[in-house]
Amino acid sequence: MQSYEHLRGSDEARCALEDLVRVGRRSVAAYRATERRARDHRVRTVLAQLRRDHQRHVRELAAILSAIGGEGVAWDGGVAPLVAVGKEPAASRVAGSAAPAVLEALERAESELRDAYAAHVERGYPEPLGAALARHLREEEAHLEWLEESRWWRDAAAPGTEERARGGGNA
Question: What does the longest C-alpha to C-alpha distance in the chain come to?
């Protein structure tokens, strides 16, 4: 691991890392919830990869936080865990994918995380922290781009999709 000794005692760096770990954990929870509701194995595969990216980011940031003298970050009880623990009724499943509320939570979590990285990158932290945050921001932008450009979840949430998937209705 690279040296972060020069950031030891920096309250600004510690607070930034704690913030990113919290927001990253909420994003992981949102991906888990969406994976559980996705019926298409190809979609679940992509969602699992994106979730693993978030988990990797959280591990990296937690390690940096520890290296600069920070302590572990407790779960903050954000919105995503409520979705993640299955509060959504089973009837809310949509053919081929996940319920609209879960998908909206996923997109919100991804946007929140991207915005948090962007704000911290803009602060211009010294290297190697600045480079790590910039790399994570690029990955978050790619995740959000995939969500915004991907049709799987919009199509699955469209009215009448379930009936068409069963062979009924006009396609």
Answer: 64
Distance between CA atoms of 10 and 166, rounded to whole angstroms?
Answer: 58
For the record, the structure tokens of 60 come out as 């990296």
Tell me which residue has tokens 């915005």.
Answer: 115
Give this prediction's pTM.
0.77
Q: What is the DSSP track for the chain? A: ----GGGTT-HHHHHHHHHHHHHHHHHHHHHHHHHHH---HHHHHHHHHHHHHHHHHHHHHHHHHHHTT---------HHHHHHTT-S-GGG--TTS--HHHHHHHHHHHHHHHHHHHHHHHTTPPTTHHHHHHHHHHHHHHHHHHHHH--HHHHHHSTTHHHHHTT-S--
Phi and psi torsions of 136, nearest 5°: -65, -40
Domains of the chain: residue spans and CATH: 10-165 (1.20.1260.10)
pLDDT in tens, 104-159: 888 899 999 999 999 999 999 999 999 999 999 999 999 989 888 876 666 555 44
